[in-house]
């Protein structure tokens, strides 16, 4: 039977690559993000493979999150797979120089946004006693690095929420998985450095980083295991990366 997946942050990077792979693998997909024109063009691209529904909302906007998800038309209303992917880093400053707006953005998007979307969808999964939640964490949720402070804290929170969801949703047979990527070349660093493309490019200079498609492939693998198999916690790094701070720029 065709499954329905909802992907947050589908307008770019890992989320968009995930929507693409799931579309080619018989999922109906609800693609979410704030950039409506990108949602429209992705819908156009993927409609040759599957049915696509777009939801344009900011995950920080509690009301918009619940109204959007509760407004889903019947063919899309029963969500089998939720991919909590929307998120970004904003800034890379020592804690003493941190920008309060950056802190708010990261906490509101990466943690509270993930919680709002989950809260809007979990009740229907509980009712059906089935479902799968994929939380996109980060190696920054497993270790910290200089100047990573608040971003790392938000991804540690995602790691904790993933573990909590696994326990709390266990009685209902809902699968819960976290995927923690290392360096993936997406728009992530452009967002972190506020549109400075040159600075963003230096992050990946001289190494072969992960691509969004590498993570999307893994997400597809995780969601396509048989129902009794729950991959729970997965760290994925480029071969060139030894830790958050150790990168081999000759690979
Ligand atoms: P991108 O910047 O390419 O994509 C981020 C996505 O999140 C966009 O689709 C964006 O959509 C969406 N998003 C951001 N803010 C909001 C918001 N307020 N409301 C709704 N959607 C939002 O980055 P990645 O693909 O790399 O990031 C995806 C996830 O992967 C994030 O959670 C990130 O922390 C995580 N990650 C990334 C790594 C990397 O090195 N790239 C490594 C480890 C984890 P829009 O702007 O249209 O709203
Ligand atoms: C994104 C990867 O190394 O910038 O989560 O934290 S990193």
From TrEMBL:
A GO molecular-function annotation: oxidoreductase activity, acting on the CH-OH group of donors, NAD or NADP as acceptor
Keywords: Oxidoreductase
InterPro entries recorded: NAD(P)-bd_dom_sf, SDR_fam
Source taxon at top rank: Bacteria
Keyword Oxidoreductase: yes
Pfam families: adh_short (PF00106)
Family: Belongs to the short-chain dehydrogenases/reductases (SDR) family.
PANTHER family: ALCOHOL DEHYDROGENASE (PTHR42901:SF1)
Protein name: SDR family NAD(P)-dependent oxidoreductase
Species per Swiss-Prot/TrEMBL record: Flavobacterium cellulosilyticum
């Amino acid at each position: 039977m065709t499954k329905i997946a909802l992907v947050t942050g589908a307008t770019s990077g890992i989320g968009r690559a995930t929507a693409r792979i799931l579309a080619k693998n018989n999922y109906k997909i609800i693609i979410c993000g704030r950039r409506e024109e990108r949602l429209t063009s992705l819908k156009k691209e993927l409609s040759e493979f599957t049915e696509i529904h777009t939801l344009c909302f900011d995950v920080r906007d509690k009301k918009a999150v619940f109204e959007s998800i509760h407004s889903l038309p019947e063919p899309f209303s029963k969500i089998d797979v939720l991919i909590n992917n929307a998120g970004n880093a904003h800034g890379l400053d020592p804690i003493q120089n941190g920008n309060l707006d950056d802190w708010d953005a990261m906490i509101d998007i990466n943690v509270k946004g993930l919680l709002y979307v989950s809260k809007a969808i979990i009740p229907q999964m509980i009712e059906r006693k089935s479902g799968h939640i994929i939380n996109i964490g980060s190696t920054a949720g497993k270790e910290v690095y200089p100047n990573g402070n608040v971003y790392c804290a938000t991804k540690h929170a995602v790691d904790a929420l993933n573990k909590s969801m696994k326990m709390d949703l266990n009685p209902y047979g809902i699968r819960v998985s976290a995927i923690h990527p290392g360096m993936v070349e997406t728009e992530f660093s452009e967002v972190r450095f506020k549109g400075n493309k040159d600075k963003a490019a230096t992050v990946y200079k001289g190494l072969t980083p992960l691509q969004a498609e590498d993570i999307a492939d893994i997400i597809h693998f995780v969601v396509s295991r048989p129902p009794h198999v729950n991959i729970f916690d997965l760290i994925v790094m480029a071969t060139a990366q030894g830790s958050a701070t150790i990168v081999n720029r000759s690979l």
